[in-house]
């Protein structure tokens, strides 16, 4: 018991990070009505800014000017917090200001763009490796129950609790706090009372940026200063904020510290002799699984009572026009693609194969987000699971095509069904939070597990041989097959992509597609018209996961192994960014997004022929996502739409008309 208590005390450091980020999330939601999944990235920016100042440099976007020497600790801390506050203000002015009348999912996706942009800027300057974060608070340790506990962990936990009580008191007793609460509860009445929601949003988002930056600076020495750790710390912080209903600072602080204690308990269990091991090491990823369970439980418990800011405003979503012609464009596209696969050099042929696979991934978002208005941040987790099934049953059991691909796709669809069960009680934004937690848990507990996952070196995949013919990238072909990938494998990918495009087009024109649009337009109105909203959402998730299962199978065969790096959360974030940029509600947008994906045709030309670093693609994805969400919600594919051709991009048809069309 003494060792368990010591572990819990050691968990006060990460718990303070989760508590601080949870309070930052509450601040942003109270002031701007946004669930900012980029809060962890803002903490990372503050930590890297402080690191740069202590090294004698000022961290700015794309530049790193010298300051003539290291800045002392206190001035560096204050300046880094001030710059973090400035980042929060910039996010509000440049992004959130233009999304006040947008759908909640658009605001969530803007946070994804913020995360990608900050990560890209950090990677471009510091690379993907970790740095040693400088200390702010004094060191030393105290003896508790026979063990040494660093004082700094207790100090940051105390500061996190103090911040929670201070913010709670400020928002209950000051005019600013009362005005923010009034705007959160009823923005229209607050405006009629003379309050300025815009000004309140700016101030709250500025405070949220400062708080996130401060907690990132203080806790970075206890974790790791790299482009991923602090950014993904938002997952347990979201769990704490959910428990606090995005309203209570004290509950958020306590829940964040509780998440840190839960993580410490998981680490303690890994030290016990009975804990399962893999290759002599404890099974990884248990804390992430526990975080996922907490978030799922909070959503099931709080689902119907979670606040929904700005419900009086008609949300704007990109239109999803039904395709008028399918057969002719498909035939032309297949013909052009086949010729390209036969004549292009091997590098562009590989880029085209990657593009075709990415198009299917974008189609999964067309179904889920474009048709139903839901967002999943676990798309590549579904794909990775499918590829892993193909790898394991192929190598261990000797099962190849067609059963291995079918079982892989089925596994992805089943996991999508299990992951979306809380859809019975919650809506799109909160489902996105759930899928984010699921993706992180599956990546760390599943893919990185040497026993049943891919481990650190990847899991090999047998070449797809059917009827004695090798359909894989290394298979033989009579034309232009000197270097992989084989044109035959490209033709297989082309055929599968064409079939998926036709299926999604027919889905949009079907009765199920009409019901999906009705649910997207208004869940209550759809339910009143006799549409089963949970059934429609679950069906959309399963179809989307099925498509990502196809992506996983093709990716596994394409690379000859299942590498966790190809199925990480960043891949999903980039997918969402480029799918939005292309046009997330139409098939044409999926084609554009697929061309822009990493390793695709556009990226291959950029890297191999123009000499631009691949890291710039991440920056391009983040900035493009923010610009698309704020200026052209319909993406490139719908940018040409005019009012005479229907509602402009970003305007949703009336709820009554959409529901009537689906019900009729």
From TrEMBL:
The lineage of its organism: Bacteria, Bacillati, Actinomycetota, Actinomycetes, Streptosporangiales. InterPro entries: ABC_transp_permease, LivM-like. The chain crosses the membrane at residues 6-27, 34-53, 73-96, 108-128, 148-171, 200-222, 228-244, 251-269, 326-346, 352-373, 403-421, 428-447, 488-507, 538-559, 565-583, 590-610, 616-639. It is found in: Cell membrane. Pfam families: BPD_transp_2. Keywords: Cell membrane, Membrane, Transmembrane, Transmembrane helix. The keyword Transmembrane applies. CDD domains: TM_PBP1_LivH_like, TM_PBP1_LivM_like. It is a multi-pass membrane protein. Its main location: membrane. GO terms for cellular component: plasma membrane. PANTHER family: HIGH-AFFINITY BRANCHED-CHAIN AMINO ACID TRANSPORT SYSTEM PERMEASE, HIGH-AFFINITY BRANCHED-CHAIN AMINO ACID TRANSPORT SYSTEM PERMEASE PROTEIN LIVM. The keyword tRNA-binding does not apply. One of its GO terms (molecular function) is branched-chain amino acid transmembrane transporter activity. This is Branched-chain amino acid ABC transporter permease.
